[in-house]
Amino acid sequence: MKPSFADHSAKALPLTLLVPEEVPVWIETQDVRTRAWVEASSFAGAIGQALVIPGPDGAPVAALAGYGTQAQRQRGRYALAAAVPALGNATYRIVAGLPDDHAEEEALGWLLAGYVFDRYKTQTPAKARLIAPDGVDARRVEVLAAAEAFTRDLINTPAADMGPEALEAAARGLADEFGAQCDVTVGEALLEQNFPMIHAVGRAASQAPRLIDFSWGQSGPQLVLVGKGVCFDTGGLNLKPGASMGLMKKDMGGAANVLGLARMIMALDLPLRLRVLIPAVENAIDGKAFRPQDILTSRKGLTVEINNTDAEGRLVLADALALADEGAPDLIISMATLTGAARVAVGPDLAPFYSTQPGLANALRTSSKTTADPVWELPFWDVYEPMIEPGIADLDNAPSGGQAGSITAALFLRRFVEAAPYVHFDIYGWNPNAAPARPKGGAMQGARAILDALPEMLDL
């Protein structure tokens, strides 16, 4: 079920948001019964606190939610969402305490807090519902929440049910929903159509590798989104240890994020031409697996020495980026769960990105602050270019030494984009710990910041 606000005609309890210093003042304005109830509770206006207030007959008549201090709110996101679990399954209308400049963020956080990955559950508990606050564009917020739920569902689904075939089906379903054209190149046809590295990475798996290519929109600047769709990554012949393989169902998080972003763009009917490219593979092991020291020739003609089969994501992205660049679009954006080095650098909460143009980076930094979608720019550091040149081939897919791993991966990808401005996101795609509006599991990262920045990035 898509996240949605309660109907305005629904019977709703009034909900007041209070910061700590406002609690005693508010109490003084209440009747004796309400004052006694609140004073007897531990409610102090802290983030995550909620209190349902009963009427004379014991039925709830109102509720309070803590909004914390300004310093506490600045250290996190979605302060109101922290209180949602304690509000039961009633419907609420905010009557006071919600700042106008944070109303959309908090409304979105409420919807995101209602997300449950229930594909394998027989029962799903009911959650508190909210009537859209005054001044909030309810439809837009619902579009954002639905896209994030869609992305989370894709990432959370185990690889047994989210292989290349299922990822293709999800993309086709999205394309059908919005009237987009979807074409898919599968298996040996990848070689015939000159996608040799996508084929090499995925040829050992039980489900054939494929390139998903869908287009939407008839006019406006062209945006191409490229998402890494490695549906499971064993590491290939450079086999991952068990602990490192445990989360590899999320290695298609880049594909899930670009599909979520595409959903928002199409649902909001942005005036642009959209193309989505997803190389969908499983990096598996059998007699056909590609090997360390193999030399692969890419779609672009650049040769790549394989020094680690576990650095496969950049290989499949390279062929897709080369295809995207051939059309000289107005902007190419890639998203991928590409390197552990990015997580070491900025942790799981920030989405690091690289940009070939300062204006694109500035737009993303600005939008990040207004969308509660944190991103952080890392550099295309040209000094490190020699690190991705092994000598025996044009490029090295896994430079030795282990330093600057995210940057060298980004430099590798940049070699395949020459005709268009380019932004690359090296995301984590996963919340390792639950936080307000962000349960443990699959995550959308950077997509809302991109959406908000597109008018400036593409001059819409």
Annotation keywords:
Aminopeptidase, Leucine Aminopeptidase, subunit E, domain 1, 5-stranded mixed beta sheet, protease, manganese ion binding, 20% strand, Leucyl aminopeptidase, Macro_dom-like, 15 helices
If you had to describe this structure to a student in words, what would you say it looks like?
- It is a single chain.
- The chain is of the alpha/beta class and 460 residues long.
- It folds into two domains: 13-136, Leucine Aminopeptidase, subunit E, domain 1 (3-Layer(aba) Sandwich); 143-458, Aminopeptidase (3-Layer(aba) Sandwich), CATH 3.40.630.
- 33% of the residues lie in helices and 20% in strands.
- It contains 15 helices and 19 strands.
- The protein has helices spanning 23-28, 32-40, 70-74, 103-113, 138-156, 164-177, 189-192, 196-202, 242-245, 253-267, 313-326, 340-346, 358-370, 405-414, 447-458; strands spanning 13-18, 50-54, 60-66, 91-96, 129-130, 181-186, 210-216, 222-227, 229-233, 273-283, 295-297, 303-305, 331-336, 351-355, 375-377, 395-396, 422-426, 430-431, 441-442.
- Strands 6, 7, 8, 9, 10, 13, 14, 15 and 17 form a nine-stranded mixed β-sheet that branches.
- Helix 13 links the parallel strand 14 and strand 15 (375-377).
- The longest helix is centred in the N-terminal third of the chain and has 19 residues, at 138-156.
- The protein is elongated.
- The two termini are 32 Å apart.
